[in-house]
Specification:
By secondary structure, the chain is of the alpha+beta class. The chain contains 12 helices and 6 strands. It folds into 2 domains: about 270 residues, no CATH class; about 100 residues, no CATH class.
Length: about 375
């Protein structure tokens, strides 16, 4: 019973440190990304609600990138803390097995691996695709993006220019180029519009429409006939405007099942994904990141467990902390570098997946031998 409480204590302490470090890294990175995304409001004219929803959906993908490093730091910091407080020394003198502690570290590593697999393969693609659809379906606020003496072309086939915008949001000397007739008139109806040029002395925007005064609409119909119409007042609907946001999901926004379908040549979802040769290379690299990257976490837990092995030389114990940390960090960096070559050769892809498993097994066997040898000395 006492041993179970001790094991739970170590598990809770390490996992708590992991969560704190991970959330700290994620909060810092998310804040930086959120600042970069301010252009969605300032330039693209989306509402603050859309901005908040979009940036919030990026949290899980940011968190996933910091999981391996956060786990390495939390495990190293926790072991050093237990050692300095002589908690390990008390446990060893009472006959508690080091192998049991190593297995606890390994169990935590497997748990973190499952968390990262869940995030990278299921949750992240869904949230990223959701964030894309939010921008695609949301309309930008035209009144927000219009600026004096500036051409605005963030909408498809539409260009706006105003000479001046006063404090009452009244627009002065307006020029609008509508290439596909998206601005349907509410008062004056222009049939068979191919494109239109609209000029007005002033106007204002209200309730998904723009009200214009004293101007002219020049239209070019499908027969290439030009028609000029003067108006004192007209209203144009803004409901059909769409932004230039890319609507086709990127590969990191695509479901893992679709990517596996493409990578394994199952050809069951050809209507949802264009599995060309060039795209397949990106698919293999992306799947390697989602499914292979988390496999390096248990390896990190085993390498860090070598901190439990003590030597009489204090210098050796001091340097060992840094050597093991650097070794684990180099392995994480190497996995990121190797990831870029997984799409080139099948052998590299297979190596990327099996390397951490083989190395973890070898290190685990060697660690057990060191613990047994140390116990018999």
């Amino acid at each position: 019973m006492l041993k179970n409480k001790i094991y739970n204590y170590f598990f809770n302490e390490i996992f708590k440190n992991f969560i704190v470090i991970l959330l700290t890294f994620t909060a810092i990175a998310w804040a930086v990304r959120a600042v970069n995304f301010l252009d969605l409001i300032v330039v693209d004219g989306f509402s603050s609600l859309i901005y908040f929803q979009y940036t919030s959906l990026k949290l899980s993908s940011i968190m996933t990138r910091f999981i391996p490093l956060s786990f390495l730091l939390s495990l190293t910091i926790s072991i050093v803390k237990f050692e300095r407080q002589q908690e390990f020394l008390i446990l060893w003198t009472t006959g508690l097995s080091k192998i049991k502690i190593v297995n606890i570290f390994l169990v935590i590593g497997f748990l973190v691996t499952l968390i990262q697999l869940l995030l990278s393969s299921i949750i992240n693609p869904y949230f990223l695709n959701k964030s894309r659809s939010i921008l695609s379906n949301a309309g930008a606020e035209l009144n927000t993006v219009l600026k004096s003496n500036d051409y605005i072309d963030i909408f498809e086939d539409l260009t706006f220019y105003i000479e001046k915008k006063n404090s009452n949001n009244e627009l002065i000397n307006i020029f609008i180029k509508d290439e596909k007739g998206q601005l349907n008139a509410l008062v004056d109806d222009f049939d068979e519009k191919k494109n239109s040029t609209i000029i007005a002395k002033k106007g204002f925007i209200t309730e998904n429409k723009i009200v214009l005064f004293n101007g002219m609409i020049q239209t070019l119909n499908k027969k290439n006939e030009i028609k000029n119409i003067l108006f004192e007042k007209t209203e144009l609907s803004l409901k059909n405007m769409t932004t230039r946001t890319i609507k086709q999901p990127k590969i990191q926004e695509t479901s893992s099942w679709l990517l596996l379908d493409c990578a394994l040549n199952l050809n069951q979802n050809l209507d949802q994904i264009n599995c060309s040769k060039d795209f397949k290379n990106e698919v293999i690299q992306n799947l390697s990141r989602r499914l292979g990257g988390p496999l390096y976490i248990p390896l990190i837990s085993i390498i860090t467990s070598f901190l439990l092995i003590y030597k009489k030389e204090k210098t050796y114990n001091f340097l060992k902390k840094y050597v093991l940390f650097v070794l684990s960090f180099v392995i994480l960096i190497s996995s990121e570098i190797l990831l870029k070559y997984t799409s080139l050769y099948l052998a590299i892809t297979i190596f990327y997946f099996i390397f951490p498993l083989i190395l973890a097994f070898l290190f685990y066997i060697y660690l057990l031998r060191k613990i047994i040898t140390e116990k018999n000395v």
